[in-house]
Fold each of these.
Amino acid sequence: MEDKIKNLKENANRILNEITSTQELEKLRVEYLGKKGEIVELLKGLKDIDKEKRKKIGESANKLRDYINEKIEKKKIELKEKEYELKINSTKHVDLTVPININVGSLHPITIVQKELEDIFTSMGFTVEDGNEVETEYNNFEAVNVPKFHPARDMQDTFWLENGQLLKTQTSAAQNKIMRKYGAPLKAIFPGRCFRNEALDASHENTFFQMEGMMIDENVSISNLIYFMKSLLSEIFKKDVTVRLRPGFFPFVEPGFELDIKCPYCDGVGCKVCKHGGWIELCPCGMIHPNVLKMGEIDPNKYSGFAFGLGLSRLAMMKFGIDDLRLLNGGNLKVLKQMRIK
Ligand code: DAH
């Protein structure tokens, strides 16, 4: 019996030395330490030998089991390390000195401007809302105080779907939904793509981008509107801008204004950007019409607010010095690459 133990130990050691994978190791474990393994068989045989020897051999057999177990565990760690090393050596190394591919894509100029504005507005406590591109006639016109036969509809001819819906002509189309969603007080902006049936030229496109904003609360007045617009535009142009208001007609605001800024590029002296007029017409705005508040389920006797519509396409043209609106949607990479922000 003692010889058998000795042989088992030698055999196990020999096999352990030859093993090169965890699968082989597992096989060895089952063979020696498994339920029907060599050690169990050995212990079973103890009952046939006399009592005095049994204790000693029993101890030797248990020692052998612990010995093999320990060896297997050690071998396991060794093999795992080797396998890991092999894996690392077989994967290709990344060469950090290779120049990056300069043909990677970049954000569209309008997206760049939109993101900048969203940052400014969210820092002022506004939420950013989504609007639809396909809208109902009600949201696009009725809910912003432009009933069916109102002449203002003529200025916003658009593309109609067979089901009576339309491609939205203005971001104002989301006003009603947002008022109903949040109620008052409310501070939200909603950027989006708009569509109109236009005769195309350098400043008219069938597809363009706007960003609408609304602020509604108790006691909001024109002074708030002017102060807010001035701070906002100063942030956008990164300098203190001078604003002026002219009366403007938009059915959803009363009073309504055209807001101009003194040209930030020439300080009002006259340049290409302001077409030598010294002022740039930038942002129509006004105090939200009581009818519009009512349709949005907000009580006009308690709340008032202002709304404005920023032309994102227009701002992108100014920022990147583009003089033809059509270039923004043209998808010409030679043009767009020049407006990449690094
Ligand atoms: N929705 C108008 C347009 O597309 C722009 C506009 C004007 C938005 C005045 C406003 C506003 O919120 O108060 O022409």
Amino acid sequence: MTDLLIASVTSGFHKLYGYEPAGVWSAPGRVNLIGEHTDYNEGFVFPFAINRRTYAAISLRNDGLARVSSSFSPEVIDVPVDEITPESVAGWSAYPLGVAWALKQLAQAKQTGFDLYLESDVPVGAGLSSSAAIECAVAVALDELWQVGLDVRELARVGQLAENRIVGAPTGIMDQSASMLGQLDQGVFLDCRDLSAQKIDLGFAREGLELLVIDTRVEHRHANGGYASRRAACEAGAIALGLGSLRDATEADLARAAELLDNTTFRRVRHVVTENQRVLDTVATLRELGPRAIGRLLYASHQSMRDDFEISIDELDTAVETAMRHGAIGARMTGGGFGGAAIALCPIEKIGDITRSITAEFATLGYVAPNIFVVSAADGAHKN
Ligand code: GLA
């Protein structure tokens, strides 16, 4: 698949622009194993980069023009690099052009124009960070071609800034960090306060497990209100508790929080506080007992998102409950919520039954047919 996509993005570039690209860079999507809506609260997350990637074929131009195109949108969009602003870009091209803009904000980039062509096999709108995959592929490419020399954490910040300011989604640092820092068979345990990261062996294959993604095909958008309102509730909760961020709250603070906060804000806070603890417990359990022991934590995370943070939807709950009934070790929605995908950690021999059961249950309930597939942990952004 990888080689096919590299050949295809190279020939797509050639067909469009009439010459060979200087190179191909790629970056993966991600699933989050656990730690949801904790990143912007300076908390803990534990995602991994997946074996679905975005490939960017790029060459520099001698003038200041940026031309961008992709297999998923036939037109070529061109704009002078120094005229890119948060107001001047729209649609999918906001991701690559936003990265060019963000590099200028965060580093001394000597910007020249460039030609860019993208292909991707990360499903769009599924909560698997197809946007971070574009941002990180373009960020590593331009960082090298423009000789900027940022490290992986700074490049993750470039992607996040593009997402926040140009695309207008007030998201945290998790997706871009996972896409930059991912490693084969490893999860990325990230402290979002200082971006220190540890790679943790997942051990799924060794234990006869696979991670199933159930894309509900209900599209989510974080530039819409639900994500921002959850973030605002967390900030309000931290202020009321006299804390800089909810990272500094523990389960011991919850009794006080229940007295100080209205019920909704209290439940938002409780989700973040307990979710941070579940991330720490998941990493410790994985190390001590292996992946078969983390199921309870994954499912508890889903319940917390469903009941306290209220970001799940019926399709995600159905996917999770059906997977659990048919032998998944643990399951939860993954990503920002309000649509997108669930994950289920499954014994390999149960994958067929779980997949068929979820598909049948969705049909019975009249939901759009889900897209169900297995993912594994893959390497982060790099030159191909
Ligand atoms: C989206 C955002 C992330 C993170 C998750 C929720 O994926 O992009 O920054 O907040 O939602 O955990």
Amino acid sequence: MPSTVILGTGSYAPARVLTNAELSTMVDTSDEWIRTRSGIRERHIAAPGESTSDMAVHAAKAALQDAGLAPTDIDLLVVATVTPDLVLPAASCIIQHKLGLRTDTACFDLNAACSGFVYALDTASAMVASGRYKKALIIGVEKLSSVVDWQDRTTCVLFGDGAGAAVLGVSDQPGVGLLGTKLGAYGDCVDLLYITHGGSDNPTTPESIAARNHCIRMKGKEVFKIAVRAMDEAARDILEQQGVTADQIALVIPHQANLRIIEAISQYLKLPMERFYVNVDRYGNTSAASIPIALDEARRAGRIKSGDITLLVAFGAGLTYGSALIRW
Ligand code: UT7
């Protein structure tokens, strides 16, 4: 099979920045607590009326421009999100229309929470490598501000909004592009990070809204421990699978949930923090958007050079996990 390569990337964050100082006027918290426990200083919040699809379109346009392609060149769109504009239909169909993609473009959403972009990369790469699709657009996008409980200090300080995108195609050059992926999930941990209402088990009711049960609930400490273990294992598995050693990795782009989680992975892999791309301080946790925003920033900042090996590694609600190795 030919190798799949990333032809371009793009990202977008809403203009509105919510600082820790401002949050501490909304709930009983402090800049000091948020910074020392999570590494987050600020996050972006979508403007009133700014939808998930709007943010996705901004990131997608930047990725298409970076790739030198037109919307009509795309024949596959995969959107990773847990906050689609609507429950039905898929955000990808709304984005297809807003972007002006062809009507014979295959469109679907994928929910793997914060691992969503790695899942989308794996899925779209396989579809492109099969030859049945030529150019894929993959987007990780979230409007988490719409499902955060702004009265719950244990979660509202952590999340933010944004979008990141990548365009995939094939290359005849051997040994470049997506070298491999490792995906998985611990389905026995669904009760650690969830939204109880608004799905088919518990449709929204006036009572559930009053109790804010349409919002994210999380057992942070438990998630933290499993996240470190899952990301470390996912990283080691993909390195072993591809016969690559940790010191050969030029840059790790981890899911940006908590600086302390990234520091723990750095210690476990015995890779210095300089080799990790970190922007959690400026975005908070943007779930499926976190890795593609970081990837786009890293490329544009010149942190990724031709021949470099990059490791993407993520975990999220599910609890899902995923890793990917890319040679540029
Ligand atoms: O993408 C996946 C998404 N999830 C994650 O990545 C989350 C992973 N978990 C974490 O990042 C961390 O567990 C948190 C940042 C959520 C919390 O850090 P922690 O060090 O595990 O703190 P904790 O939950 O043990 O809370 C310590 C104390 C508690 O008070 P007591 O019981 O010691 O009196 C909390 O009530 O801090 C309190 N606390 C706060 N205080 C000020 C919890 N949230 C806040 C807050 N401000 N925002």
Amino acid sequence: MLIRHTPDLRESEVTDRRLYLDRRRFLALGAGAALMGAGQAQAGPIASYAKGVVVLDDKPTSKEAITTYNNFYEYGTDKEDPAKNAPGKLKLRPWSVAVEGECARPGTIALEDLVKPHRLEERIYRMRCVEGWSMVIPWIGVSLAEVLKRFEPTSKAKFVEFATLADPVQMPWIKSRVLDWPYVEGLRMDEAMHPLTLLATGLYGEELLPQNGAPLRLVVPWKYGFKSIKSIVRIRFVETQPRISWEKANGREYGFYSNVNPEVDHPRWSQASERRIGEFRRRDTLMFNGYGDQVGSLYAGMDLRKNF
Ligand code: MTE
């Protein structure tokens, strides 16, 4: 059984700037098949997945920081709360996901069956939180587009809505009503079908820990972190733009698109720079978090100040 520990990744494996510059090469690289090891244990090693694909030449943030500095309001609002509160509380198996709405093949599907038919890949992505900090995370997951296609969305499916589990027994903190539960997020269909969009099941070579949104979370690296919804139990194809949790909580500050954009300030702070966790000096924030070559065309002609 091959177990890869990402800290041992050689620089040549994690850094290939040509991948960033050549989207076709990036897409082609994913073509090597790898089967998923459907490990049952919490945070067990993942047996097999395709070699790391990096889209920007950044060094991954430490596993320690990625797994202890979190936002997961279902387990408290402080950064250290999810790592303290979610393990042991969130029951990871059995887990199933209801796929509903505008599609020919709706149904409730066990996590293993949802993921297993697909190529499991490592993707090392920059993530930028709307609060102004960022990390580089070696995710493991499957292409969301490949998963969604199996349910045969109809021509009426213009958006995809995702919901997190909202169980007051496993998540007693949701009684606090800081957000309107369940946590809901959404993507436009073309965003959901974009090859960068990932359904993640692991990071750093291991299954996701509860605090990072086990057993299944979304990863959308060109958008602010809150779009990357955790512990997903429902995926719904819809005709109209979903009302997302943060928009409901404060629509003046958080919009549906939430593309990383250094030119559009949050009403209470600048978005021009960020603190990469583990670094001292602030970095300039890049348009679309540096993924503009890949995703910029999705927003051609849109006013990104209005559609923030
Ligand atoms: N998903 C749910 N269900 N609940 C949350 O509170 N927080 C979001 C996002 N997904 C959140 C969520 C925010 S604000 C961020 S920045 C990322 O998760 C953080 O992901 P990480 O803790 O794995 O870094």
